[in-house]
Design brief:
about 550 residues, alpha+beta, two-stranded antiparallel sheet, 11 helices, elongated
């Protein structure tokens, strides 16, 4: 979220900062001593280099500002002439090739500080395709206020970093050719500054979010639709955990769709990311926070055995999981709001404090440690009791998580090395640095949904315990004991099935009805007795969920 929030305005101050802005409305007044201002959308595409050939517009930077200057009374002189000098330029790639976005922003600060537009002094090696525009400010009846309208269009001919610098200047007389920077004045800007790429208003380094979120939304939507079809076709096999999985999958799909729509709307309409937030961004943020929280909660209760090893959690476990999830959600909201407010603090009145990030880190680590310990514990228990079928499911889940954790770790290492300057990370792929966890979430959620999909054994697995394979492995007799649950289905007593190649199953009824009669059925006969036993198919043969015996838990 913080990475996405960096799309916002990063600054408009004396020292130059980046404005990753789209179509940015400006209505600000700056106090005395601020006479130089800079804006940048950092990386922009020229027409020929448009991604995917999306050449909908001619890329340009358009400045349309009403400027007001009120010099300090002590510096006023009737012969002074005031003006606004604007410069737009491209920064050659060789100077920023190994810099990340924050370092590029610092570089632009230094470059603008060393540039004197009033005297037309700048480093020609670090600035290319320069365009300068000067507008004279006039006094309209007010002796202390000078104003004018500045309109400039700069065409982008070079792909890479583009920047705009504004400086307030004065001359000692209208005929003087020497301009100097206004050292002490109040400056106001009202208007709009627009950065437009060939495809729209979205900054070049963030264009990749559009196809990424589109693909993520499509994958989740298709998988969610397929999962619902499976639930409908096997509705009699559905257990509670399947509804939880479905809800999280569709929430992830809606979240991805929300971000896709938010980026598309910002790209086509030019609305800034913040502040205030566009409605589409607010919706996407809400679903992202809920998805992150519920995804962690789902994985945790799965690793605690819910839906496979046991039918339900204890009240204490439910309360603990709920409290942790709610705490994580609240902490995430608070840190995201703080980060966005900090990014938009143009005056940089406060420094970043890690204390805001600390609660989220603690709750995230709590989730990870709890998930890990629960997974290790449940796999150890299944291994000790010889429940090989369930153990196989959890082993596949653990392997899937392990593979993608390794993938995310390697990607994180690559990102760190790139930021340290070990190698250059292409700016066109900067967006990939923030989506590793989204890919991990997608992979783990799909893996959980697939492994815990409704099958013939879903209800049986949640209600049964496989008997150890260490005892009586060669038995061909299946004994089924039922104290009541089978009686509810029209069958009472103990069942004994003898068939060649049959596996052994022992079930203890969940109910409490009376029934002492014993009956034997020959399942080699044409039809089975009247029963809804999920272990029997329509022909009366036992359906084999796996090797070994299952004992229904009372």
């Amino acid at each position: 979220m913080a990475a996405k929030a960096s799309l916002c305005l990063l600054g408009l101050t004396l020292l130059p900062q980046a404005v990753l802005g789209f179509k940015w409305p400006i209505d600000n007044t700056y106090d005395k001593s601020q006479y130089k201002f800079t804006f940048s959308e950092l990386y922009m595409y020229n027409y020929e280099d448009a991604p995917f050939g999306l050449t909908l517009f001619k890329p340009d930077i358009h400045m349309d500002l009403h400027v007001t200057l009120e010099p300090d009374v002590a510096d006023l002189h009737e012969n002074y002439a005031y003006s606004l000098v604007a410069a737009a330029f491209h920064v050659p790639e060789k100077h920023v090739a190994n810099l990340d976005t924050l370092s590029v922003n610092d570089y632009l600060k230094e470059l603008a500080s060393a540039t004197d537009l009033c005297a037309q002094v700048y480093d020609k090696d670090k600035i290319s395709n320069l365009m300068m525009h000067s507008v004279a400010l006039t006094n309209k009846g007010n002796e202390t206020v000078y104003e004018s309208h500045a309109n400039m269009v700069y065409e982008v001919h070079n792909t890479g970093i583009q920047s705009v610098v504004l400086e307030m200047c004065y001359q000692t007389s209208p005929d003087s050719t020497v301009k100097m920077a206004v050292a002490d004045a109040t400056v106001s800007f009202q208007g709009e500054l627009t950065f437009k790429n060939p495809y729209g208003y979205l900054s070049g380094i963030y264009f990749g979010y559009i196809p990424f979120e589109a693909c993520r939304a499509i994958i989740f939507a298709l998988f969610g639709a397929l999962y619902i079809v499976v639930l409908i076709l096997k509705h009699e096999r559905v257990i509670k955990v399947h509804y939880f999985i479905t809800a999280v999958v569709w929430m992830a799909a809606i979240e991805a769709l929300g971000w896709f729509m938010a980026y598309v709307l910002m790209n086509t309409g030019g609305a800034p990311y913040c502040c205030p937030f566009p409605p589409a961004v607010v919706v996407a943020m809400c679903f992202e926070m809920l998805r992150r929280t519920l995804s962690r909660a789902l994985l945790l209760i799965i690793c605690m055995g819910y839906g496979i090893v046991r039918e339900s959690l204890t009240m204490k476990e439910i309360i603990m999981v709920s409290v942790l999830s709610l705490s994580y959600l609240v902490a995430s909201v608070l840190v995201d709001v703080h980060d966005i407010a900090e990014i938009n603090d143009l005056g940089r009145s406060t420094t970043h404090s890690m204390w805001w990030d600390f609660p989220v880190l603690v709750f995230d680590l709590t989730f990870l440690i709890w998930i890990y310990l629960s997974l290790v514990n449940i796999m150890g228990s299944l291994r000790a009791t010889g429940q090989t079928f369930k153990l196989t499911m959890y082993t596949k889940l653990a392997n899937t998580m392990g593979v993608f954790v390794i993938f995310v770790s390697m990607l994180t290492l690559v990102i760190v090395l790139a930021r340290e300057g070990t190698f250059a990370w292409p700016w066109q792929l900067y967006w990939m640095q923030t989506v590793a966890w989204e890919v991990l979430n997608l992979a783990v959620l799909v893996a959980v949904a697939f492994l815990w999909r409704p099958t013939e054994y879903s209800v049986l697995l949640s209600q049964s315990q496989q008997l150890s394979m260490n005892d009586d492995e060669n038995e061909e007799e299946v004994d089924i004991e039922d104290d009541g649950d089978m009686a509810k289905r029209g069958v009472a007593g103990d069942f004994s099935l003898e068939a060649e190649g049959a596996f052994d199953i022992e079930m203890t009824g969940m109910g409490g009805m009376d029934g002492d009669g014993d009956e034997e059925y020959d399942y080699d006969q044409p039809g089975p007795p009247a029963t809804d036993n999920p272990m029997m198919d329509e022909g009366g043969a036992a359906e084999e969920p796996g090797n070994g015996d299952y004992n229904t838990l009372a």
